């Protein structure tokens, strides 16, 4: 089955700096890669997703890149703000619509 | 447009009791997914359902766990004879059901504590 690895597990950045989270996946059949943000005590909230027919997607301060050959994808957050502090999860689908999640990255933005 | 709704938000059970978790998908969504999250870990897929049909239950333990999504009413995840290891957050997600690669929207979760 699919396996998703996510790094780093924790990330501390100064407000205004950029944050980058990287994920790798194992199943070349995966073709959909969402990113979720989870705040304490809440459910995961979709922040951006990318499909395998594109290499990059951007939405304001958030961007995601996908390298199908290397089987990795990354989340980039620019101009970080304290409200960006949360746990971020990458995911990939392989068989049907089932998502396999990475282990999560705890991001702390220091004011 | 209301999001995915789950209840209860918190559930405490003693070992051996039954836990029943409910999920109402977003309006217009006909596909429901259940995931489990242990403390400090990522989400693990359990089961994927359409109305009156289980599509994929490959992530669900063979014993004590069952799920349904009836024609009317919410999806139910049922855990019989709970054990301490069942303590976790259980999240439901829904999608429209019109295509592959569908975006899944998550509910707030049910936090189950087994004493």
Task: Describe the protein in words.
The complex is a heterodimer of chains A (111) and B (115). With 111 residues, chain A is mainly β. Chain A has no helices and eleven strands. Helix content of chain A is 0%, strand content 57%. Chain A is globular and about 40 Å long. The N and C termini of chain A lie far apart (41 Å). The mean pLDDT of chain A is 94. By secondary structure, chain B is mainly β. Chain B has no helices and eleven strands. In chain B, strands 2, 4, 5, 6, 9, 10 and 11 form a seven-stranded mixed beta sheet that branches. In chain B, 34% of the residues are buried. The mean pLDDT of chain B is 93. The chains are: A mainly beta (111), B mainly beta (115). The interface between A and B is medium-sized, with 25 and 27 residues.
| Poorly predicted spans of chain B | none
User: Which chains make the largest contact?
Assistant: A-B, 25 and 27 residues
Strand content of chain B: over 45%
Q: What number is the mean pLDDT of chain B? A: 93
Strand content of chain A: over 45%
Structural class of chain A: mainly beta
What portion of residues of chain B is helical? under 10%
Reported for the largest beta sheet of chain B, the result is: 7 strands, mixed
Q: Count the helices of chain A. How many?
A: 0
Overview features:
heterodimer; A: about 110 residues; mainly beta; 5-stranded antiparallel beta sheet; globular; B: about 120 residues; 7-stranded mixed beta sheet; about 0% helix
Task: Furnish the topology, listing elements before pairings.
The complex is a heterodimer of chains A (111) and B (115).
Chain A: E1 4-7, E2 10-14, E3 19-25, E4 32-38, E5 45-51, E6 56-59, E7 62-67, E8 72-77, E9 86-93, E10 99-101, E11 105-110
Chain B: E1 5-7, E2 10-13, E3 19-24, E4 31-37, E5 43-50, E6 53-56, E7 65-68, E8 75-79, E9 88-95, E10 105-106, E11 110-114
Parallel strand pairs in B: 2-11
Antiparallel strand pairs in B: 1-3, 3-8, 4-5, 4-9, 5-6, 7-8, 9-10, 9-11
